[in-house]
Specification:
The complex is a heterodimer of chains A (823) and B (261). With 823 residues, chain A is of the alpha/beta class. In chain A, the strands form ten sheets. Chain A has a seven-stranded mixed β-sheet, with helices on both faces. The longest helix of chain A has 60 residues. Chain B is of the alpha/beta class. Chain B is built from seven helices and eleven strands. In chain B, helix 6 runs parallel beside helix 7. Classes of the chains: A alpha/beta (823), B alpha/beta (261).
Chain lengths: 823, 261
């Protein structure tokens, strides 16, 4: 229990209740329920960001891609979506893109541009072409014209084969030589009596006859050999003639059909690519006419007549397929606005699929699949920045595409050199897209600092505000926005009081009574929960009670740890005094944030002093529980002390400061004024009122500066005091500059109204110490002295006493040496 | 071996090698479903021809035109073994497809004589000859002028249809005139067999059909000349009218799978 001392100065009254919670007046909104308001989504307070989005959407130069930054729930996604959709409506519908076979180098498919909406038409036309030719070409090869020509060629080559053999056979007969067939080939033997000569008969012949026979046989063998060796050449010629016949026959019908196609698309095709492609198709079909005969051979007598069979689906006709990558086929009336929710490498730039054939993976141009960049080409692509950067190689690939202004499809396996199968190198498709990344500020900062290409490619940023001024106009606009959100989510209409309550919550979330938060997502969450309570209560409208309940329940769900801490304080497990006074001890305030929930809690700060060598020990920092900002605050208050008191003597203070019972680490300088008060109290020996908690940082001039979380801090101490009974001598010291941030709970305001609690704004340390001690701080007079008995005088006297004691100690230490004659 | 029924067509293929036999079997395959065949095959080791291999420095010209040393007896024996196996397997496979009974045997001697001997009771004896080149030729019916509408003529037309080949009729008649027929359906007339054979020698024929019972080919010698100039399988009908009396040879039993049929 702290000591009681008499106080000369009464506790200041503090702020008036009106200043603690400037609520919104429902009657000023101009409606009774939101039924009366037209649901119209208008972004509020985001002019800067909206202008940036509009610029990015409209400017035609490349690299003016956009990064949209801001907090979650500020309407970034909805704003981007709406604005881009409006901009897209004014842009022309982009052209279609397809991939077709490159007949010369099939692993490098050709990209072809087509007018918007024509890709599907062209694909169908090519399918029809194949189906038509699959019917017509086989019929052609069964026609009398073809058969006649074919027979003529067979006849000719048959003759050309037979005649040399016949001539040889005749010659052999004339020379009395037999042509014999054996399993291995042909043998020639001289004839004797109409039969081939036997070996013993041959041996019995005179040598000259043998020689004559041998010479004749050899000559005829060479002749026969020449005839047979000529066979393959004839066969080749025969083949070539047949192929030429096939090509000639096929060419007529193929040319006719392909020309029809070319004429059909000539007017719609913008460049020579399609005509060139059709020329290649014609040549390929002509030289591969047998493909069309294959289908005919494989015909089964199924239920469907051949005339309607889909030949183009057969694998060997895949070479004539048209792979539609992007098609804008009539349903769309504007440039695309594409949002890719999973921006992996494959989803962004497309992928090359493979199929398994005979245990190996193969691919072809029909297995190219488009990505988001293809679909967004000519329009806009919206991506979540964090997700994009989380996907391997996706960010790299996107930059590469934007820099080169083309889309190159590569696989992840290819990038990692893991691919060990056939792959493709498709033509890159020219890219004209505006990319919008949506992310947080930290990510934007990191990208700007660490990725030199980022700033080149994303020249624009749309920085979404977190809050907006609380003007009358904005109040009405925010009310309208709330009504629109309710309508969009199909909620019950809100009463004016409910809207007012929601706007008050918006002020609270902004942490500033002059501002509304623009985190509409958070307000929408409250509305939806309130709608649920209204439903349970069978109300037609959402009332202010439902809004209050939603807010309270949300706090309650998140306040388990807060309640446990409060219980620890109530049970005096954590020591906090809320009455009496104590020297060198003050109640500081801190905010703890867990998820989206923040709450304040008091902490006892103590200071102890003695003579020393001018050291101010921050115990938190000594044990690495103090963060840099906290250490900075302690160093500042130490500098204040050193520069305000006993300037004519060496610093001879040894002081220590600590947050009692704090084991989790502290940071921030919002308690630096509290620490200074504790130190001043310890030096002066004047006790501090324990019913007053303190928050505020201090500078070297002794000015008390604004801090964050002032509402939570006040409410935290209020709850502690209320749990023990409000005495009317309790309250919180806050910086003057935080008055505009007050939006306290209604129970706190009621307590202030009742005079049982007070909020005391202070501008300087002197003001604060007066409120805490009830004694004048004192101002230095012209003679350099503080008024006697003032806090400052007591502090200065103590410091001088330390210095004097130290000097005397120094003299005493050195004096015995002098008496003994030692130098 | 299953005894031939009255409705089935007995076909015997005589060949000196598998290369010759396979050309004939390919043709049979085209018409096998139009007949109820009873197939027989005989591989003849032509002793006269093969004796030539023993001549000193005897060479052989392969089908591709290479001149190589003639095989030794042992090599020939091995080749004939392999050819016999291949001939038998192909014959069995072909017969299986048609559900037809089949037999196979080997012999040594003169191909024509042995084929005639073996096929004496057959409806058709095919004297096999390999295709020297891959260009398919015509189906030729060689007949006497009076026999152009016979069953053999019908068979030749059917064979031409099944092989998508041109059909040609060569008729040898006594008129003394050699003239071309007025159209494809009419035969070309030849005054003598020799003239017809001379024409046939320069023709690309895929198969030649001849009715031995009606001429113009009626003796073994004429048959031999025909086979020499045709240089393709010769389908011979009317075995009974061939002048030489034939002796039966020993039949080698068919493959075990066919026992009991």
């Amino acid at each position: 229990m702290a000591n009681s001392v008499s106080q000369n100065l009464p506790l200041p009254d503090g702020l008036r209740p009106e200043a603690l919670r400037p609520e919104c007046d429902p009657t000023s909104l101009g409606f009774e329920t939101t039924d009366a308001l037209a649901a119209r989504f208008e972004l509020l307070g985001q002019d800067r960001a909206v202008d940036a989005i509009k610029l990015s959407a409209g400017i035609r130069h490349k690299d003016f891609n956009l990064y949209v930054l801001g907090h979650e729930g500020t309407g970034r996604h909805a704003a981007v979506s709406n604005l881009l959709t409006q901009a897209a409506a004014a842009r022309p519908i982009p052209c279609d893109w397809v991939y077709v076979n490159n007949f010369e180098t099939p692993h490098k498919p050709n990209a072809m541009q087509l007018p918007s909406g024509m890709a599907g038409v062209f694909r169908s036309a090519m399918q029809d072409l194949v189906d038509d030719l699959a019917n017509e070409i086989p019929a052609l090869f069964e026609s009398e014209e073809y058969l006649t020509q074919r027979r003529a060629i067979e006849e000719e080559f048959g003759q050309r084969h037979e005649e040399p053999i016949a001539a040889f056979a005749e010659r052999a007969r004339e020379e009395n030589v037999a042509l014999l067939r054996t399993p291995m080939g042909f043998m020639l033997a001289a004839m004797v009596d109409g039969q081939p000569i036997k070996p013993d008969v041959y041996e019995a012949l005179p040598d000259d006859q043998k020689e004559e026979i041998d010479t004749k046989i050899e000559r005829l063998q060479d002749h026969l050999s020449a005839v047979l060796r000529h066979g393959p050449q004839l066969e080749k010629e025969h083949r070539q003639r047949i192929e030429a016949l096939h090509a000639d026959m096929a060419e007529r019908v193929v040319s006719l059909r392909v020309q029809e196609l070319a004429d059909r698309f000539r007017e719609t095709s913008r460049d020579a690519d399609m005509l060139e492609y059709l020329k290649q198709v014609r040549e390929d079909m002509t030289s591969n006419a047998e493909l069309f005969l294959l289908s005919k051979r494989n015909t089964s007598n199924g239920p469907f007549p051949e005339a309607i069979r889909k030949y183009h689906r057969e694998p060997h006709f895949a070479r004539y397929a048209v792979n539609v990558m992007v098609s804008h086929d009539g349903a769309e009336r504007s440039a695309p606005v594409i949002r890719e929710g999973l921006p992996s490498l494959a989803h962004l730039t497309g992928r090359i699929e493979h199929i398994s054939e005979m245990g190996a993976l193969t691919t072809n141009f029909t297995l190219l699949k488009p990505g988001a960049l293809h679909r967004a080409n000519g329009g806009y692509l919206v991506l979540d920045a964090h997700r994009l950067l989380s996907e391997p190689f996706a960010w790299d690939a996107l930059k590469h595409c934007l820099q080169n202004q083309s889309i190159a499809i590569t696989s992840l396996a290819d990038r990692l050199s893991l691919a060990s199968t056939t792959t493709l190198e498709p033509d890159p498709i020219p890219l004209d897209v505006r990319v919008v990344l949506i992310g947080d500020r930290r990510l934007h900062m990191l990208l700007t600092l660490l990725d030199p290409e980022f700033s080149d490619l994303f020249k624009l940023q749309a920085d979404f505000e977190d809050d907006v001024d609380r003007s009358a106009r904005n109040t009405r606009l925010l009310a309208r926005l709330v009504a629109s959100c309710a309508a969009k989510d199909a909620l019950r209409p809100l009463t004016a009081a409910a809207v007012a309550g929601l706007l008050d919550h918006a002020v609270r979330l902004a942490d500033d009574s002059k501002k509304f938060t623009l985190r509409i997502g958070a307000l929408s969450d409250v509305m939806r929960e309130a709608d649920h309570y209204a439903t349970l209560a069978k109300r037609k409208h959402i009332s202010d009670k439902d809004i209050s309940k939603a807010i309270e329940q949300a706090d309650r769900r998140a306040s388990r740890i807060q309640d446990r801490l409060r219980e620890a304080v109530n049970r005096k497990t954590i020591l906090i005094d809320t009455s009496g006074a104590a020297v060198g001890q003050v109640n500081g305030l801190s905010v703890i944030g867990i998820g989206n929930h923040r709450f304040g809690r008091p902490s006892r700060i103590t200071a102890r002093v003695r003579m020393g060598a001018g050291k101010l020990v921050d115990i938190e920092r000594e044990v690495d529980l103090g963060g840099p900002l906290h250490s900075k605050g302690v160093l500042i208050l130490g500098a204040y002390l050193a520069s305000h008191y006993a300037l004519d003597v060496p610093a001879s203070l040894h002081a220590s400061l600590v947050f009692e019972q704090s084991y989790g680490g502290v940071d921030g300088d919002s308690a630096s004024s509290a620490e200074l008060y504790a130190l001043v109290s310890a030096l002066s020996g004047v006790p501090i009122r324990q019913g007053i908690a303190v928050t505020g940082s201090v500078n070297q001039n002794g000015e008390v500066q604004a801090i964050g979380g002032v509402n939570e801090k006040i409410e935290g101490f209020f709850d502690t005091c209320k749990a023990r009974r409000l005495t009317g001598q309790q309250g919180v010291l806050i910086p003057v500059s935080n008055v505009d941030h007050l939006m306290l709970r209604r129970d706190v305001v009621k307590a202030v109204e009742a005079g049982t609690f007070r909020i005391i704004p202070v501008r300087t340390i002197d003001q604060g110490i007066e409120a805490l001690t009830g004694r004048k701080a004192g101002t230095r007079a012209r003679n350099g002295a503080f008024p006697t008995g003032s806090i400052n005088a007591l502090v200065e006297a103590r410091l001088r006493a330390f210095a004097e004691t130290r000097r005397r100690f120094g003299d005493r230490t050195s004096a015995p040496d002098r008496q003994e004659g030692k130098p | 071996m299953t005894p031939p029924s009255g409705d089935s067509t007995r076909i015997t293929v005589g060949a000196g090698s598998f290369a010759d036999a396979s050309a004939a079997l390919r043709l049979i395959e085209r018409i096998i479903h139009d007949l109820r065949p009873n197939l027989g095959g005989i591989l003849v080791e032509e002793t006269t021809s093969l004796a030539v291999c023993d001549l000193p420095n005897q060479r052989l010209v392969s089908p591709s035109g290479q001149v190589v040393l003639a095989p030794t007896r042992a090599q020939i024996a091995a080749l004939l073994e392999a050819d016999a196996r291949a001939f038998r397997q192909s014959l069995a496979k072909l017969a299986d497809r048609a559900g037809a009974p089949w037999t196979f045997q080997r012999g040594a001697g003169d191909l024509i004589q042995m084929s005639l001997d073996t096929g004496a009771a057959s409806d058709i004896v095919i004297f096999a000859h390999r295709n020297i080149h891959p260009v398919a030729g015509k189906i030729v019916l060689l007949s006497s002028s009076t026999a152009t509408q016979s069953d053999v003529a019908a068979m030749s037309r059917m064979l031409a249809q099944r092989t998508s080949a041109s059909h040609m009729m060569m008729a040898v008649d006594d008129s003394g005139e050699t003239r071309k027929g007025p159209g494809a359906a009419h035969p070309d007339h030849f005054a003598t067999l020799q003239k017809a054979l001379s024409q046939l020698a320069r023709m690309n024929a895929q198969a030649v059909l001849v009715d031995l019972s009606r001429g113009p080919v009626q003796s073994a010698e004429q048959l031999r000349s025909l086979i020499d100039v045709a240089r393709c399988p010769v389908f011979a009908f009317g075995m009974a009218s061939v002048t030489r009396a034939l002796a039966h040879t020993t039949h080698i039993p068919p493959s075990p799978a066919r026992d009991g049929q």
